[in-house]
Design a protein that fits this description.
By secondary structure, this protein is mainly alpha-helical. The protein is built from 8 helices and 3 strands, in the order αααααβββααα. It is globular. The structure holds manganese (II) ion.
């Protein structure tokens, strides 16, 4: 079964004014579609075609550039669309995730500061992540389309990513140009904490 570009759970313009509709449409229909097509081409007719995307990344990203770049791009964007929601959602301070964030960083603001720093200091293209590893929360970043599931030297904190932010210029340049920091700040207005919580609870099992 070939991988398929997922539908967005909202319209392209629904994350405005934080993320503009034109960027969202190009990002989904051109970039994400491109990663999906290239991933399928990389695994077609090989035993890899039977694997889940998680298994592909964990076992084959290291030795297969197509899986690493296009499989990473496919997985990362799948996660990215889902951890955003129109208007954002209230930070669930009393949930297991909320308590774990407060326990580690002291406050939501301090957490956002470290996450923003990971996003802002990633040189060139890449991603910032919040991950669960060994039952603990960690912030890190990866270059290109690498992610913490991959068995590669750049995999950052490792473990299971539960929140990810795309800091490739294609994610923000039309609206924010060189001002990546403004884009990162805007992202926090659309975070879908319900989805992040769900992923946290699953990763802690
Ligand atoms: Mn992207």
């Amino acid at each position: 079964m070939a991988f398929k570009l997922p539908k967005l759970p909202y319209d392209y313009k629904d994350l405005q004014p934080h993320l503009d509709g034109r960027t969202m449409k190009i990002h989904h229909t051109k970039h994400h579609q491109g990663y999906t097509n290239k991933l399928n081409a990389a695994i077609e007719g090989t035993p890899m075609a039977k694997l889940s995307i998680e298994k592909l990344l964990a076992n084959h990203a290291k030795d297969n550039a197509g899986v690493r770049n296009s499989g990473g791009g496919f997985y990362n964007h799948n996660l990215f669309w889902k951890v955003m929601t129109p208007g954002g959602s209230e930070f669930p301070a009393k949930s297991k995730l909320g308590k774990a964030i407060i326990a580690k960083w002291g406050s939501l603001e301090e957490f956002q500061k470290e996450f923003s720093s990971a996003a802002g200091t990633r040189f060139g293209s890449g991603w910032a992540w919040l991950c669960v590893k060994r039952k603990g929360l960690h912030i890190c970043s990866t270059p290109n389309q690498d992610n913490p599931l991959m068995n590669v030297e750049s995999n950052g904190c490792g473990g299971t990513p539960i929140l990810g932010l795309d800091v490739w210029e294609h994610a923000y340049y039309l609206k924010y140009q060189n001002k990546r920091g403004d884009y990162v700040s805007a992202f926090f207005n659309v975070v879908n904490w319900k989805e992040v919580s769900k992923r946290f609870n699953a990763a802690m099992k």
